[in-house]
UniProtKB/TrEMBL annotation, chain A:
<feature type="transmembrane region" description="Helical">
    <location>
        <begin position="259"/>
        <end position="284"/>
    </location>
</feature>
<protein>
    <recommendedName>
        <fullName>Cell division protein FtsX</fullName>
    </recommendedName>
</protein>
<feature type="domain" description="ABC3 transporter permease C-terminal">
    <location>
        <begin position="170"/>
        <end position="288"/>
    </location>
</feature>
<keyword id="KW-0472">Membrane</keyword>
<keyword id="KW-0812">Transmembrane</keyword>
<dbReference type="Pfam" id="PF02687">
    <property type="entry name" value="FtsX"/>
</dbReference>
<feature type="domain" description="FtsX extracellular">
    <location>
        <begin position="55"/>
        <end position="146"/>
    </location>
</feature>
<keyword id="KW-0131">Cell cycle</keyword>
<comment type="similarity">
    <text>Belongs to the ABC-4 integral membrane protein family. FtsX subfamily.</text>
</comment>
From TrEMBL, chain B:
<feature type="region of interest" description="Disordered">
    <location>
        <begin position="214"/>
        <end position="281"/>
    </location>
</feature>
<dbReference type="InterPro" id="IPR005286">
    <property type="entry name" value="Cell_div_FtsE"/>
</dbReference>
<feature type="compositionally biased region" description="Basic and acidic residues">
    <location>
        <begin position="243"/>
        <end position="269"/>
    </location>
</feature>
<keyword id="KW-0067">ATP-binding</keyword>
<feature type="compositionally biased region" description="Basic and acidic residues">
    <location>
        <begin position="214"/>
        <end position="234"/>
    </location>
</feature>
<comment type="function">
    <text>Part of the ABC transporter FtsEX involved in cellular division.</text>
</comment>
<comment type="subunit">
    <text>Homodimer. Forms a membrane-associated complex with FtsX.</text>
</comment>
<dbReference type="GO" id="GO:0016887">
    <property type="term" value="F:ATP hydrolysis activity"/>
</dbReference>
<comment type="similarity">
    <text>Belongs to the ABC transporter superfamily.</text>
</comment>
């Protein structure tokens, strides 16, 4: 194994520009793949965030009694499709309103707790339960209005699904491209050393002795490309963090936990190594027949 | 032992390279394979290395039938046979040392073992001064000696030298032949394919002659040693010692370890007799 590393090192050292171009192209490819993967992971998280937010808000008439509201709350809670029910009193509604409009004194002056309705904020376990819950609640006495975000969630679900499908397609395409790049470069190297390979075979070298260094070279390109791509993506995320925080608002996506980034690095390194070894193996096998 | 039994090799284009060839080469034997170009000498080497498969017939090397050898066992067979190729087959971007060390590396010797072994072989073939040169920096004789050194590196039981004197002047050709004779003295079977009649006639060894792929002569029992062996060599030398003597001197100075200690008694007696004869001359 140590010998294979030495031979790999010699191959790379003797063709530094080929090695450089391989690593550069793979870095760019993996960088795009990494960014898209982060977008995919991010969109999933955004969707999950919206799914856990109160999705149905029930506003009560002013004359609705506390008992009535409590009874309805208990009834809703017993529904298996409901994950959480939160009561917002008139006073709490005012507090929220004040918090939201703290920079607009004019709006604050005009509003008192009386004119704000009490409400129940209901979270569903599944987005598809929303319309059913809204329908049931709407028929209850004392309820003035039911607002639910089915459309928003539906749009978001569709969007996430689209991102996921596009992501899988893009990642497959980029994987195939990375494999082709390594296959071509290693193939060229093997082709230029065809005579040497023939000699090695005649001298009694095993197949692994011959192709081992080429497979290690492919792994080296893949792993290094993956590492640089991860580094570049991480730097980009850190650089754009202030912008992303203001863009995403309440959605707690940034900062990305370091553990997640470390796992992403591990995944990328494995991905790079697999792509590299597979491509080199395909390139080398042609010459071993 | 090498056994060819009714071996025929026909190429897909219809060319018959060797036709119904049979011979047996005993361990520690030195055999010249002679014949004009295209007689099938190189084909025999390629069949022996199982680079080619015979169309018919059976080839047996040290008890194993080559047709029965599995693909993954092929490297082991090839390590048994030290091949000296007509076109050298040296790796151009590796030095003399690296080319010779390569075989030791293939058989997984440690770096220390490789260093010791390669240095020993290089001094045996007289290339210790050239160890860091690349093949393009060597003369024909030096290239040939490098390939012989490489062939020796696995301490094979058989050395097959394909036209080792083909591109060399007479003096250098003698150096190479003497080196091979010296290797044979260490109980290695040596097969030399050549069309250099002078050398074949001057060295008293078994000759298998091929013409158009068929064996036309096999001097299984070597004739009595001819007197003019060294004289004819001497006449080719510009001055000083004959290459044969030179090689012998080198051998005496740097005796290589004989791996196989159980040398057949017959062989020992034979070589002692030959030495005595030479002294008388």
């Amino acid at each position: 194994m140590k010998k294979s590393f030495t031979t790999t090192y010699r191959h790379i050292r003797r063709t530094p520009y080929q090695a450089l171009s391989a690593i550069t192209v793979l870095t760019v490819t993996f960088f795009i793949a990494t960014l898209y993967f982060l977008v995919m992971a991010g969109s999933e998280k955004v969707l999950r965030y919206f799914e856990t937010r109160p999705q149905v808000t029930v506003f009560f008439q002013d004359e609705a009694q506390k008992d009535q509201i409590d009874a309805l709350r208990a009834k809703i809670r017993s529904n298996p499709g409901v994950s959480d029910v939160k009561y917002i009193s008139k006073e709490e509604a005012l507090t929220i309103y004040r918090e939201q409009n703290k920079d607009e004194p004019l709006l604050l002056e005009m509003v008192t707790a009386d004119i704000l309705p009490a409400s129940l904020e209901i979270s569903a376990t599944n987005v598809s339960n929303l319309s059913e819950i809204a329908k049931i609640v709407g028929q209850e006495p004392g309820v003035e209005e039911v607002v639910y975000q089915e459309d928003v969630i539906n749009a978001l679900t569709g969007w996430t699904r689209g991102v996921r499908i596009a992501g899988v397609a893009l990642l497959s395409f980029l994987s195939a491209t990375s494999m082709l790049i390594i296959l071509i470069i290693i193939g060229l190297k093997i082709s230029s050393r065809k005579v040497e390979i023939e000699i090695l075979k005649l001298l009694g070298a095993t197949n692994w002795y011959i192709i081992g260094p080429y497979i290690l070279e492919g792994v080296f390109y893949g792993v290094l490309g993956a590492f640089f791509a991860w580094g570049a993506a991480y730097v980009l995320i850190l650089y754009t963090t202030p912008f992303l925080i203001s863009f995403l608002g309440e959605i707690p996506l940034i900062p990305i936990p370091f553990v997640f980034m470390a796992m992403l690095l591990a995944g990328l390194l494995i991905f790079g190594a697999v792509i590299g070894s597979l491509a080199s193996l395909i390139a080398a096998r042609r010459f071993l027949r | 032992m090498i056994r060819f039994e009714n071996v025929t090799k026909e190429f897909p284009n219809g060319t018959i390279a060797i036709d119904d060839v049979s011979f047996v080469i005993d361990p520690s034997e030195f055999v010249f394979l002679v014949g004009p170009s295209g007689a099938g000498k190189t084909t025999i080497l390629r069949l022996l290395m199982r680079e080619l498969h015979p169309t018919s017939g059976m080839i047996n090397v040290d008890g194993s039938d080559l047709a029965a050898i599995k693909k993954r066992e092929l490297p082991l067979l090839r390590r048994q046979i030290g091949a000296v190729f007509q076109d050298y087959k040296l790796i151009s971007d590796r030095t003399v040392y690296e080319n010779v060390a390569l075989v030791s590396d293939i058989i997984k010797r440690t770096q220390r073992e490789i260093d010791e072994h390669v240095n020993e072989i290089l001094s045996l073939v007289g290339l210790e001064e050239k160890r860091d040169l690349f093949p393009s920096q060597l003369s024909g004789g030096e290239l040939q000696r490098t390939t012989i050194a490489r062939a020796l590196a696995t301490q094979p039981s058989i050395i097959f030298a394909d036209e080792p004197t083909g591109n060399l002047d007479q003096a250098t050709a003698w150096e190479i032949i003497n080196l091979l004779l010296m290797i044979n003295k260490k109980d290695t079977t040596v097969i030399v394919s050549t069309h250099n009649q002078d050398i074949v006639e001057s060295v008293d060894k078994r000759v298998i002659e091929l013409v158009k792929g068929r064996v036309v002569r096999d001097t299984k029992k070597p004739p009595e040693q001819k007197a003019p062996t060294r004289e004819s060599a001497k006449s080719e030398q510009p001055s000083g010692e004959t290459p044969q003597k030179e090689a012998e001197t080198r051998l005496e100075k740097e005796p290589q370890k004989v791996e196989n200690e159980t040398v057949p008694e017959e062989t020992k007696v034979k070589s002692q007799k030959q030495k005595r004869k030479k002294k008388k001359e």
